[in-house]
Structure formats: structure tokens, C-alpha cells
Amino acid sequence: MATTIRLEPSVGGVSASVLELRAELAEGMREIASFDVAQCDVSVSEGRNAIWAIIRRAGSGGLAVRAAPCPGGARRLRRVRRAPGDALRLEVDSAIGRQTICFRDATAELPTLRIRTELTPAAPLLVPFLPRDLYPIGTNDDPLRAEGRVEAAQRGLNSGLIYFHLDAPAFGSVLYFQNLTALNDYFRATRTTPDGAVGGEWPEIGYLPPTPPQSGTPPVDPLPAGRTITLSDAVLILHENAAGDEQDQALRFLQMSGAAYRLTDRPATEFRDWVARADRTLKDLDTAPEATIRHYGHLYVHPYTAAEYPDVMVQMSLIASIRDYAAWTGTPIDLAARLAAGLVKFHDTGLGTMRRYLPNVGKDKDKDAVDSWYLYHPLLNLGRLALDGDVRARHFFLGSLDYAIKAARHFRYAWPIQFKVTDFDIIVAARNDDGLGQTDVGGLYAYVMLQAYELTSEERFLHEARAAIDAARDMRFELNYQANLTAWGASACMRLWRITNESYYLRQSYVYLASFFHNCAIWESEIAHARHYSNFLGATCLHDAPYMAIYECFDSFAAFERYLKDSGPDLDPAARMLICEYCKYALHRAWFYYPDAIPAEILAQENRNGHIDRKLSFPLEDLYHDGQPAGQVGQEIYGAGAAFVFATRSFHSVDGAPFRLFCDHFLLESERHGACALSAQLAGGDRCEAALSVVRLPRRKLPKIRLSLGDGSTVRPKHITPDRIDYAVPANARVTINWASADIKDDR
What we know:
Elements: E1 4-5, H1 16-27, E2 30-37, E3 40-46, E4 50-57, E5 62-69, E6 76-79, E7 86-94, E8 97-106, E9 112-121, E10 134-137, E11 147-153, E12 160-168, E13 172-178, H2 184-190, E14 198-201, E15 204-207, E16 229-239, H3 246-261, H4 274-287, E17 292-295, E18 298-301, H5 312-329, H6 334-341, E19 347-348, E20 353-354, E21 369-371, H7 372-387, H8 391-398, H9 401-410, E22 418-420, E23 426-428, H10 441-456, H11 459-471, H12 483-500, H13 503-518, E24 520-521, E25 538-539, E26 548-549, H14 550-566, H15 573-589, E27 622-623, H16 641-650, E28 651-653, E29 659-663, E30 667-674, E31 677-682, E32 689-696, E33 705-709, E34 714-715, E35 719-720, E36 724-730, E37 734-739
Antiparallel strand pairs: 1-11, 2-3, 3-4, 4-5, 5-10, 6-7, 7-8, 8-9, 9-16, 11-12, 12-13, 13-16, 14-15, 17-18, 19-20, 21-22, 22-23, 24-25, 26-27, 28-29, 29-32, 30-31, 31-37, 32-36, 33-34, 33-37, 35-36
């Protein structure tokens, strides 16, 4: 948990950088220029070994930002012509070369200062160390008199951010965001990765440029002479309020993250034919011997290619996603029925619950062991099917609820990592030495209880959902254990708000969302093999995992669809925008998990589970921000539901039309205005962009299409082929599509 930091000169330790800054502030630096950012004054000043931006709020402390390191001092410093939007642009010569520093300010959403520094080295430049760049300053410009609290900092290779508030003096809240996308050239040249690069120890925080490990061997990979490289692209979002409970802090984090997100470099997305991918996946599930195995006369799924024992979470995930696809196509899929027939062997009538493993699981597994989330996630999918009228699913779902509640109450709604289903003995209590278990399972459990409440109208289930969400109070940014569970927790809170009309649950959904987006990578890595795939806005699967995983990706996508459907105009705009952007990039990014979509040479040669077969349309489990070989964990058959989930949520059938619609944003609602006209409302954020495509059906020909916005303006296509017409529209637009009535057959 974050703690309030009160650091006096005699308590703890401080670095030479802190003491040097303290002395220079006391002596006074030479001011080069000044400008205002909202109610803050910014003084750009020359220190002995750096150019600084000192941000002050009158009588309320401030921040010192090292805008550019200048070892030995600046030899030559001059203002240069500003580009549109610049507050100030400087050119500085020092021993290491020439640096250009661009200062930009904005107040469209929240007061913002962006400082971008580019270096052209004078010689091949080895970088053994550069200090952090951000220092809160207290009374009399003293960094040792600043009191505050860090709420969240960069985890691993996720977003390079630190979110904190300076309480004494009462400067307010700050989100520091380092645009790591702009720094790829630096990482590649120095052969480093920005793992945990933004963080620090109060009052020396911010970005620590990655350098080789300190040792007797110096770095040998220089920044090339004469080549301009971005050293830093820092965005500071300022908010005058610091106080507040975890809900206030979470909402503020989302709003400030939204403001920073709008300034980031965002990669272009590409159309992905998830329908074709789903059809291939369905065929491989049905015919590939690596996919399934028979026990007790029933068909079961291997979690990985010809590897691992069948388990109920895998079985239910695929049954539910294939059922979705069958409903979307309007045609029953026999494979789903064959997989569902085997559920009976997972059900323990004595305990009254679904077991993780079949009774004949191998002796190398503890048949009584279960991860906490594995107890509840199969119930989530059973509940979905039960609400859709599936009698078998209803039987197993209702028959498992008493045990589910018994387990929750036994653990007092704070679940361990793993326990015995027979007597609740804990096998693994905590994820590490922080003593925390699966902290977000309560959100998943609450969602299951709300499904039970919807199915039965029994008040006890509503009480259980409340109890689980209330038990997670004050977890703050430690709430996230596993990305998809956190997403379902947000969805459970949103649904509780709809049922109870208590704003507490709407606001608590922001706590889950803040923890989720804290674990995302809002940058596009081009390090090593990562240049062959996209990682932008990908969430690491666990709070401390080194990789993104397909299962957590598409399950979070499904949870966020439910969240948005239960939301309304009261949903904070920044929260809506971040969710929709996550889902947009999931549709683009998830394609690269399929081994046929990336070069064979970047696949891991050794796999923890099974093997990789590029001919099978099953995704890899793991992709890495730092470009490690992909698929080290294995080819994940239990993630094969991704194609069905993405296809059914992003492609939309149009009755009587020779095409489908693809949209990388959810549609809030659609309406037919005639045989050849329809309108739809997109769910996205203000000033964001959505992709919308008209996709030709097999043996049909695309008609003439007119796409218009709510104001009547016509949208011109971005790209046209015989099979598809692509458009870019505002992500929150209402669009109207008109087409010619003739449907000409096509032999293609």
C-alpha cells in the first residue's frame, strides 16, 4: 500500500541530486523564460548542470522538473522559433551535444505541461547514468519540506507514469506520464528497456532513463553521434485538489490519464477479419487431434496444444464463446453441445460445486486444489448460458451457488491464491510478501451473485454482491490481481449501481477501472521482436506479470462490453473513452497472438506447455513489451474463444443487405429506417476516432453506399476494395448508412 511520506533532512537518506537541487533553489537559478499554466507559474531556469522547469502554485509549493541534463553546464543557450502550440522552445549546447527542449502547455481538460527533449550527441555517447527528473518542492522551494503520497507508479513495462499528490504545501495532484513510444530509438541504441523506469523515492521521483546495470563493466552501446534521439517526452497533468478517498483518487487518476492519453502517440489500427478467424478456429477445434481428448465417453478440450489436463474453466470458456458465435450466425454448432455434455463429470454432487479437474486427473496434479478465480469464472459462463435459457447450465449454476457463498464467507471475501475445495485449507496464501491474495476475485464473485439475483430474484444474492464489493474497500491501486477479474469487478459495480441506484457503486467501479488501466501499457514498443506486433494499451495479465495474455485480453473486452451496456450518461467521459480505446486496440492487437500472424523466427523454441503449430488457428498465450520470444508459455487452446468473442461484438449483420458492418467500437443502439437504411450510435469518447467498414458477404456484390453523420455531412471512404469499404468516423458519432437496393450475385 502507498504510505504518506514525511522526509526531513535527518530522517532517511537523500541523493546528491536532491541536495544539489536544494542548494541551487536556495541560491537562485538564472531564469531564462517564464509562462503560465492555468494557475501555476512556470520558470524555465539554468542550473549548474541542467535546464530546469520550476512549476509553482502561489503559496502552495510546486515541482522541479529537470528538462535537460547539461553535464559541465550549458555552453550556449538560445531561444528558437516556436512551432504552433509551443509555449517555449530552447536550443542548448553542452559537452554531450546539442539539445532541443520544447515546452507546450494546454488547459483544454486539465492544466498540462509537456516537455520534450531531443539530443544530438557530439560524439558516440555512452550513458552509464542519468538521474531522475521530477522533485516535489515544499515551503521555501525546499524539496525536503514537501509532504505527499504516491498513489501509483509504473509497474514493469506498463505505462511510464507516477500519480501522486503534494499535500503540504497543498499543491494538489499530479500525474507524470512519460511517452515511452517516443523513446524507442534510445532503448534500441542503448539495448535497454524501461522496466519500472518511472517511480523513485520521495522526493526524487519521475523518469530514470534506463542504463546498463551498474557493475565493473561499463556500457558499450552508445547513442550515435550526429543522430537526434528523444531523451524524454514528459507530460505533467495538474489538478489543484489533493484530498479525497480512494474513489476520488481513482476518478481523478482516470480523468488525468484521459488527458495524458489524448497527447500520446497512438498507432494506426488495421481491419481484422475476426469472422474468418473464428471459422478457422472452429474447424481446428473440431478436427485437430491436438485440441481435444475423450474421457468417460465425452469430449474435452486440452488447455494447450496436446498438453495439460482438461479443466472446467477451459471447457466453459469455449462452450460460452462458441454459443455466442452460434447465436450470431443463427446456426447451431454441434461442437458446443458435445463439449457441454461432458460438464456432468466436473460436477461434484457431494460438495455441490464444479470441480476444476475431472475425477481421473493425473497424479501429478492435486485434484482438490483450485485457484480462487477458477472456482467462480466457470460459474460466470454458466450464469450467462442460464440467463439465455440453457436448462443444463441453469442446473449446474444454481447447484453450485451455496458452495460458492460458503467459500466466500469462509475467506471473509478476501480469497487466497489457491486452496483445497474439500476443506478450504490454504495452499498458497499470497502473491508475494505483501500478504495479498487474489484481491479482485471479489468483483468476479459479485458479478456471479448478480447473475443469480437476475435469475432468481432472491435478495440473498444481492446482499452477497454488496458484501464482496464492500470488502475490497481501501485497496486503492493494489486491487488488481488479474486483469480480466478486475474488469468483471468494474462491471459488477456498474450493475450494482443500476440495481440499487447508490452512487457509491458507480464510483467504486472507477476504483476497479483505475487499477486496470494502471496495469496497461499506453505506449507502443519497438524493442527487439516487439517491432513485429502491437502492444499498445495491452494489459499485463497479472499485476506483476512480464507479458500480455490473450485470455485476459478478450475476457476483459467482454466485461467492458457489459460495463458500457449498463452505463449511461452519468459515466465519466474519461472512463468511457479509456474503456472504448482499450477495446478498439484489443481488436487490433489480439491478432498478433496467432502464430501465423507473426514471423516464425520470433516464436519461442521451447514452450512451457505443449508446442506451437503455426497451421492451427489457436493463439499464443504470451506476448512481451520488451520483445522476448513469443509463446514461451505455449499455444493457448483455452484462449481460442477470443476469435468468437471479437467476431460477435465487432461484426454486425444487416437483415436483407449484401454486407455486414464492422466497427471497432461498440454500438449503443441501432435502428432501421427502411429496407436500405439504418442508423447507429457509437459508444466511444469525444475527439477519438472509430473505424467502420462495410464488408461484402460471400457471393454478393457491394452496393453503392452513403455514410453520413448526425449533422447530415457525408463521410468519404478511406479505402475501397471489391470486398470492403473502410471509413473513419468520430468515435461517439451517430452514423446513418444508405445503400442501393439491388443485390447482384457475385461468384467470388
